[in-house]
Design a protein that fits this description.
By secondary structure, the chain is α/β, with parallel strands linked by helices. It contains 7 helices and 7 strands. The longest helix is centred in the N-terminal third of the chain and has 33 residues, at 31-63.
């Protein structure tokens, strides 16, 4: 193989004759040498990959790093709503009393801006006892995913949670929910859990002071399901429940994208 190099001027030599000189390196790589080098590289890479796999197998033997109960779930809104409802119950199997509900309400207060007419967390009578329902039926055979109620008829406090991790809204869905619940509690909060962070398109403008979008992923500002579950992990005193919550947190982070991640695409 020849390589061209530049030279300086020599006295008495016409311009251009020694400006460039070709120097032979004596080596011309051919297909054999290239294929041999590539083969060695791939062989080494294969050994590295096998080593990683073996390490993963040893780790999983004692830590099961890839195991998650949520891997067995299909994209089922009702299953997730059922889990959230059980976490919110004071008598839930988690054994943590009203802690998870209080943490959920704290998330909502973090987004209480000017003009908000909803009830704040401190104003809910959590210590007086409450009921958590799923699939609460309202006129027109609509079903609210989760309803939390305090008090007796005529003196009730309501919290409505509509869970939309994947599905779109039905026609006038949240508008109908708002009409129903505000006929029972004019200060009730309506929370829209949104898989992609988008807001409800069916809530009436005059009801937006009572409405909050709560995305699954945390974007660094405002409330989110991710931030709520993280706080639950921190406050939970039962190891078995804490491991479940950590698994759910990982699932949320894997299955849903934060707002800034969507914007980057």
């Amino acid at each position: 193989m020849a390589t061209t190099i530049g030279c300086g001027r020599m006295p008495g030599v016409p311009v251009g004759e020694l400006d460039q000189v070709e120097v032979s390196t004596g080596f011309e790589p051919g297909p054999v040498e290239f294929e041999t080098g590539l083969g060695s590289f791939l062989t080494g890479l294969g050994a590295v990959i096998e080593g990683v796999k073996e390490t993963q197998v040893r780790m999983d033997r004692v830590a099961a790093t890839r195991f998650s109960v949520f891997r067995y779930f299909k994209r089922n809104e009702n299953i997730i709503s059922g889990i959230f409802a059980d976490l919110l119950r004071a008598d839930g199997s988690h054994g943590q009393g009203a802690t998870f509900l209080e943490l959920f309400l704290d998330q909502l207060d973090g987004d209480a801006g000017e003009g908000a007419h909803h009830r704040l967390a401190r104003d809910y009578r959590v210590s007086d006892g409450y009921v958590v329902e799923t699939e609460h039926v309202i006129p027109g055979l609509r079903r609210i995913d989760i309803v939390v109620r305090w008090g007796e008829r005529g003196d009730e406090q309501w919290l409505v949670i509509e869970n939309k991790p994947w599905a779109d809204e039905q026609e006038d869905q949240l508008a109908d929910y708002a009409d129903y619940v505000h006929g029972r509690d004019r200060d009730a909060r309506i929370v829209y859990l949104s898989g992609d962070g988008s807001e409800s398109e069916t809530i009436a403008e005059e009801k937006r002071a009572h409405y909050l979008t709560m995305p699954y992923r945390h974007s660094g500002r405002g409330p989110s399901v991710e931030a709520w579950i993280r706080r639950c992990v921190e406050r939970c005193e039962a190891d078995q429940v804490r491991w479940f919550l950590r698994d759910m947190l990982s699932y949320i982070q894997d299955a849903f994208r934060a707002e800034e991640e969507s914007d980057d695409e």
